[in-house]
């Protein structure tokens, strides 16, 4: 019965050892206490001692190779005995062989060259999307989109400062702290202030935050003798709650979700043609007459919903110990606003027709720009669509909006030479659609099925009308 | 009731325990023949003899370790540090041995030893003799530390410390030694780990230990007389164990906590108290927790500045008023 | 018979070497029965096999932290600890496995402690450097160089205070001799005439620093006793008979006269300061280690003596070897299969009062947080 000598732990911090030299060869007689090898640890080069008597049957390691502590180094046994096969996984100092990239998760491509279309420089470097062309004149002052107790804003626009006790007492009395005058240091509302206010009978404030928003700013005009020594004034910008939330959520997404990226090119000509027909017929009519106007995005949202119906595995989310398959499509889409972006959600898109989706999207965009979205209009999505096509971006990949398992990134339709069915080079239109997937939930093949379903729908868009 | 000094109260505790338990030994620099640097052990040598009252050479490491070693065999040494500042000399014995031996032996060995002596600044002796190591000691699991503020507490806590089977540090105060308080004739013990409300109030909880309690009481009087603020004064008495419930309940009642101690503020006792208050009385706080500690530099020698470096009633009153 | 040098005598250790004494004939050794001698020998072998087994377990990654092996020094622990009686106490530094086994602690409880298991002598709370067995008068295993010397003073003080005829054997390495605590303790031991025997196990290296590079005093380490008016002696530590004979004299002085002694016992460790110490290259030569193993090994020497005395023969020796190895292997199996301590035990054994129902008479929180079990 042979005995295995393992890579010894030779220091308190050693995890792997590298073989420097064999001091005994295979076939040599060894005795307990003999040194059989030299091993380099994280601290020093040290000798490895033999704990058995017999013959060195097998050396499992070549000079220069490394194995973890506890992995077989040598076998000792009686002469003529066969040593067990080594199972040590060694690593050599030479560069490791490059692992094959999994089929499904192609690396993110570098951005394609910009088209000749002039860019209307977007102010926000949004990774999630923007959906309508920026209209800077509509810029609004930063306001928290989801007010929290800590973020109460008083009539003068300042954060309400109140002691925990004052908050608790006010809560018990059903009193808003917004317009209670604080008598504590720095205007802090203390318990006595709340009690005094309650006596005076201040009711729960009905003033809403949005009404306090100052009038629109206009873009500053460039002075005649502009200072060109700096591109902008060096300054610190306070992180708004929205910016903080974007930073936190997207960092968490990008660092904790194993993203993979697929891209598909679709023929966007039929979609554009159908949109033109619909808008030509319906845009000039009143709502009573059935009037409507559809954006490319509306059509993509509907197409995406239909594609999810065909490949529902993508409409799922990772829940740690299980995967949640969602029965409904709650589709989110990105809306760029002056100081960030919001992702309103169209609920149960699978039961809504194109007209309903377009109307709902329009309403949500208006609310987003006016900061009137309610929290439940911005949460609970199962999939997200982003679109930078209107900025001339031809292709990109968004960061997944948790807990979604994927995000669609829609590029601009590009007029370009294409090869038609007859093998001729003709002028055509192509649109690139990127998909970022959560590899814990969706694999490449599934995502490819989804994108092909989407491609089929977009290229035969009439199906969106039924 | 009779009044006796803080010094006399400690001496009475030592005498009573020396009589009660033949294993109790008083040991330290000049505790016997010289009668003690601060006369706490005056007359004990005559009364109990050289076996029980023992002068040591100036070797804090050796006699602290000796006490710990002897305590493992069931002797109950009461070690006097002439100043608690000198316990730093014997920190290896105190931290590695007294605190750890019970644990490292899996509970097989106990160290019933008491380290006592003055641990205070404010006496114009400069930085090396003015340390308040209660936070250092309390930071070490295995040790207990108490800081009596009155003669009554000093006697009751000292007797409990000597009877305790764990190492206990009793931190006294040279400025209090000569002050008198009411102390009953009959025997009593004060449990280690029980805070005491020294003054009841409704508007503000001043939480203090050691001589800072006396400062806090003076400040509370002024707040009541001149500013109509009715402050409660909580005396921690023991730093480890810490009577969290008593001071948290006080803060829940008043909504305000002002922490006063002669300890240095950085990672000091007050920081620990503040943690418990925010954790357990957050929704009861009507103002941020305020602290008055020693000003954060080595103890200064110059007297007028030293008087300002330590908490005094004026600084405490100012801090209370600032809380709004 | 050895005359232990009284303070300020002129006799030197070299004189002894010139006219060797037959320590086997010292009273304390002459009265040993055949079984006693075989037990002494067996225990030396057991210590060595145990240490070798711990090394292997360490190298298998089953033991963490530091491991300071005693291999080569066995005659010191066995020679001295075999003299310990009811009122004699032992305390040492971190190289403590030899003393622990010599005092009767089992391989199982020691190995389990190294594994950090609940069945360890300290329930997995002490580790290699912190073995304790107060029921066997063993007061530890201490991790800080020299830190145990004041405690040894205290144990001797306790014996004297209780008016018992006993002593304390307080061990340290040669590296401890330049720690302040040691000198404070020497002074107080002599000043208060405490029955403590300070034993320097001089293996030549304070960690990785040779004696010459760490001590200013050129003579014997034990000569420093003279500065404190304390008796001292120098012992050849590979000769267990000599270790016993001279230590016995010191212990009798402690028991009968309540006087301290400083003993320097020359010995050698084959292994590094700890097992992570790449010893051969840095501060001593391989040849030096080989020389000790071949020519001065305390176990081989005692084995040879016992064979000459007719106490041991080849087959008995082999049997002892085999049993010791089996016992060491069994301790490894025991430790390996023992459970780790429960999470709740992390705050047990910190305070006597907590473990004994303090809530009845006291209040206040003593722990910042209590773990979930």
Describe it for me?
The complex is a heterotrimer of chains A (466), B (324) and C (373). Chain A has 466 residues and is an alpha+beta fold. Helices cover 21% and strands 20% of the residues of chain A. In chain A, strands 9, 12, 15, 16, 17, 18 and 19 form a seven-stranded mixed β-sheet that branches. Chain A has a four-stranded antiparallel β-sheet with strand order 1-8-6-3, with no helix packed on it. Chain B has 324 residues and is α/β, with parallel strands linked by helices. Chain B is built from twelve helices and 14 strands. Chain B has two domains: 3-182, Thiamin diphosphate (ThDP)-binding fold, Pyr/PP domains (Rossmann fold), CATH 3.40.50; 196-322, Rossmann fold, CATH 3.40.50.920. In chain C, strands 2-1-3-4-8-7 form a six-stranded parallel β-sheet, sandwiched between helices. In chain C, strands 5-6 form a two-stranded antiparallel ribbon. Chain C folds into two domains: 18-338, 3-Layer(aba) Sandwich (Rossmann fold); 342-373, no CATH class. The model of chain C is unreliable at 8-18 (pLDDT under 50). Chain C has 373 residues and is an alpha/beta fold. Classes of the chains: A alpha+beta (466), B alpha/beta (324), C alpha/beta (373).
Question: What are the SSEs and their pairings?
Answer:
The complex is a heterotrimer of chains A (466), B (324) and C (373).
Chain A: E1 3-6, E2 16-22, E3 29-30, E4 35-40, E5 45-49, E6 54-59, E7 66-68, E8 72-77, H1 164-173, H2 191-200, H3 241-256, E9 259-267, H4 269-282, H5 296-310, E10 316-318, E11 323-325, E12 331-333, E13 335-337, E14 340-342, E15 345-346, H6 354-369, E16 383-387, E17 406-410, E18 414-419, E19 425-438, H7 444-459
Helix pairs in contact in A: 1-2, 5-6, 5-7
Chain B: E1 3-5, H1 6-20, E2 24-28, H2 44-48, E3 53-55, H3 60-72, E4 76-80, H4 91-98, H5 101-104, E5 114-118, H6 134-138, E6 144-146, H7 151-163, E7 168-172, E8 180-182, E9 196-199, E10 204-208, H8 211-227, E11 231-235, E12 238-240, H9 244-254, E13 257-260, H10 269-281, E14 290-292, H11 303-309, H12 313-322
Parallel strand pairs in B: 2-3, 2-4, 4-5, 5-7, 6-7, 10-11, 10-13, 13-14
Antiparallel strand pairs in B: 1-8, 6-12, 9-11
Helix pairs in contact in B: 1-7, 3-4, 8-12, 9-10
Chain C: H1 13-18, H2 27-30, H3 34-59, H4 74-81, E1 88-92, H5 97-102, H6 107-114, E2 138-141, H7 148-161, E3 167-173, H8 180-191, E4 196-202, E5 205-206, E6 209-210, E7 231-236, H9 240-257, E8 261-266, H10 279-282, H11 286-296, H12 298-308, H13 314-337, H14 352-355
Parallel strand pairs in C: 1-2, 1-3, 3-4, 4-8, 7-8
Antiparallel strand pairs in C: 5-6
């Amino acid at each position: 019965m042979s005995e295995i000598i393992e890579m010894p732990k030779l220091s308190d911090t050693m995890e792997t050892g590298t073989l420097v030299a064999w001091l005994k060869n295979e076939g040599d007689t060894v005795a307990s206490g003999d040194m059989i090898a030299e091993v380099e640890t994280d601290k020093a080069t040290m000798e490895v001692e033999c704990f058995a008597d017999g013959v060195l049957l097998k050396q499992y390691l070549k000079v220069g190779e490394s194995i973890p502590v506890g992995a077989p180094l040598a076998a000792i046994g009686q002469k003529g005995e066969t040593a067990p096969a080594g199972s040590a996984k060694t690593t050599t100092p030479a560069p490791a062989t490059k692992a094959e990239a999994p089929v499904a998760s192609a690396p993110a491509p570098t951005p394609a060259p910009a088209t000749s279309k002039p860019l209307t420089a977007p102010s926000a470097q949004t990774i999630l999307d923007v959906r309508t062309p920026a209209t800077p004149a509509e810029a609004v002052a930063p306001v928290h989109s989801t007010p929290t107790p800590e973020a109460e804003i008083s009539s003068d626009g300042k954060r309400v400062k109140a002691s925990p006790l004052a908050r608790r007492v006010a809560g018990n009395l059903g009193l808003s702290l917004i317009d209670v005058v604080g008598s504590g240091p720095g205007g802090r509302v203390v318990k006595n202030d709340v009690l005094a206010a309650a006596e005076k009978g201040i009711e729960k404030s009905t003033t809403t935050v949005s009404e306090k928003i100052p009038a629109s700013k206009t873009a500053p005009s460039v002075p005649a003798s502009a200072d060109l020594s700096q591109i902008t004034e060096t300054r610190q910008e306070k992180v708004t709650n929205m910016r903080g939330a974007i930073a936190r959520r997207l960092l968490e997404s990008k660092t904790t979700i194993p993203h993979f990226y697929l891209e598909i090119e679709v023929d966007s000509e039929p979609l554009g043609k159908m949109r033109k027909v619909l808008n030509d017929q319906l845009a000039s009519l009143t709502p009573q007459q059935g009037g409507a106007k559809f954006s490319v995005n509306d059509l993509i949202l509907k197409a995406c919903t239909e594609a999810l119906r065909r490949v529902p595995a993508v409409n799922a989310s990772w829940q740690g110990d299980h995967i949640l398959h969602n029965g409904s499509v709650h589709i989110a889409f990105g809306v760029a606003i002056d100081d960030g972006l919001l992702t309103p959600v169209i609920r149960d898109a699978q039961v809504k027709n194109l007209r309903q989706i377009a109307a709902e999207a329009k309403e949500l965009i208006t609310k987003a720009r006016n900061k009137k979205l309610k929290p439940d209009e911005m949460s609970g999505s199962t999939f997200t669509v982003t679109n930078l096509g209107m900025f001339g971006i031809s292709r990109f990949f968004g960061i997944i909006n948790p807990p979604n398992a994927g995000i669609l990134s829609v590029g601009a339709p590009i007029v370009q030479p294409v090869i038609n069915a007859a093998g001729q080079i003709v002028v055509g239109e192509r649109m690139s659609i990127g998909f970022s997937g959560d590899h814990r939930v969706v694999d490449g093949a599934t995502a490819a099925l989804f994108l092909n379903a989407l491609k089929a729908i977009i290229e035969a868009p009439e199906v969106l009308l039924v | 009731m009779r009044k006796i000094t803080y010094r006399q109260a400690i001496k009475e505790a030592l005498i009573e325990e020396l009589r009660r338990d033949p294993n109790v030994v008083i040991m330290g620099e000049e505790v016997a023949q010289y009668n003690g640097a601060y006369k706490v052990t005056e007359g004990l040598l005559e009364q109990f003899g050289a076996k029980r009252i023992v002068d040591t050479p100036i070797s804090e490491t050796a006699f602290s370790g000796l006490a710990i070693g002897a305590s493992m065999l069931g002797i109950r040494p009461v070690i006097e540090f002439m100043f608690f500042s000198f316990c730093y000399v014997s920190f290896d014995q105190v931290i590695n041995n007294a605190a750890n031996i019970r644990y490292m032996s899996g509970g097989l060995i106990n160290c019933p030893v008491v380290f006592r002596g003055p641990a205070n600044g404010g006496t114009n002796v400069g930085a090396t003799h003015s340390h308040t190591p209660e936070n250092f000691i309390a930071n070490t699991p295995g040790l207990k530390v108490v800081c009596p503020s009155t003669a009554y507490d000093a006697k009751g806590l000292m007797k409990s410390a000597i009877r305790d089977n764990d190492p206990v540090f009793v931190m006294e105060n040279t400025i209090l030694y000569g002050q008198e308080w009411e102390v009953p004739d009959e025997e009593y013990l004060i449990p280690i780990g029980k805070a005491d409300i020294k003054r009841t109030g409704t508007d503000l909880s001043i939480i203090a230990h050691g001589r800072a309690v006396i400062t806090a009481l003076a400040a509370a009087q002024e707040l009541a007389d001149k500013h109509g603020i009715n402050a409660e004064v909580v005396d921690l008495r023991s730093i480890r164990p810490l009577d969290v419930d008593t001071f948290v309940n006080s803060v829940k009642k008043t909504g305000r906590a002002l922490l006063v101690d002669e300890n240095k503020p950085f990672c000091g006792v007050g920081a620990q108290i503040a943690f418990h208050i925010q954790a357990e009385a957050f929704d009861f706080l009507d103002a941020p927790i305020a602290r008055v500690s020693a000003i954060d530099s080595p103890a200064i020698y110059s007297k007028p500045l030293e008087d300002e470096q330590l908490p005094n009633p004026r600084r405490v009153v100012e801090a209370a008023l600032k809380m709004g | 018979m050895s005359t232990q040098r009284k303070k300020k005598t002129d006799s030197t250790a070299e004189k002894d070497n010139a006219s060797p004494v037959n320590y086997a004939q010292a009273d304390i050794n002459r009265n040993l029965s055949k079984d006693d001698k075989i037990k002494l020998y067996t225990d030396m072998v057991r210590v060595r096999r145990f240490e070798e087994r711990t090394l292997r377990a360490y190298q298998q990654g089953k033991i963490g932290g530091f491991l300071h092996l005693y291999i080569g020094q066995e005659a010191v622990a066995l020679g001295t600890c075999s003299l310990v009686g009811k009122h004699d106490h032992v305390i040492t530094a971190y190289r403590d496995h030899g003393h622990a086994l010599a005092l009767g602690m089992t391989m199982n409880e020691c190995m389990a402690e190294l594994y950090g298991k609940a069945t360890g002598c300290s329930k997995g709370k002490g580790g290699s450097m912190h073995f304790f067995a107060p029921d066997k008068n063993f007061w530890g295993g201490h991790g800080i160089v020299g830190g145990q010397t004041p405690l040894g003073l205290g144990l001797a003080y306790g014996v004297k205070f209780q008016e018992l005829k006993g002593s304390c054997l307080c061990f340290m390495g040669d590296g401890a001799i330049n720690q302040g605590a040691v000198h404070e303790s020497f002074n107080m031991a002599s000043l208060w005439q405490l029955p403590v025997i300070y034993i320097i196990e001089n293996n030549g290296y304070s960690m990785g620093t040779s004696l010459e590079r760490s001590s200013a005093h050129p003579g014997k380490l034990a000569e420093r006793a003279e500065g404190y008016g304390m008796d001292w002696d120098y012992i050849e530590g590979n000769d267990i008979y000599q270790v016993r004979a001279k230590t016995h004299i010191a212990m009798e002085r402690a028991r009968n006269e309540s006087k301290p002694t400083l003993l320097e016992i020359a010995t050698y460790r084959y292994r590094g300061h700890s097992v992570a110490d790449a010893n051969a290259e840095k501060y001593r030569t391989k040849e030096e280690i080989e020389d000790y193993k071949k020519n001065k090994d305390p176990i081989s020497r005692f084995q040879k003596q016992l064979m000459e005395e007719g106490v041991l023969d080849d087959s008995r020796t082999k049997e002892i070897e085999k049993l010791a190895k089996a016992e060491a292997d069994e301790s490894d199996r025991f430790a390996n299969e023992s459970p780790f301590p429960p999470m709740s035990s992390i705050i047990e054994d910190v305070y006597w009062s907590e473990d004994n129902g303090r809530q009845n008479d006291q209040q206040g929180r003593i722990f910042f947080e209590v773990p979930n079990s």
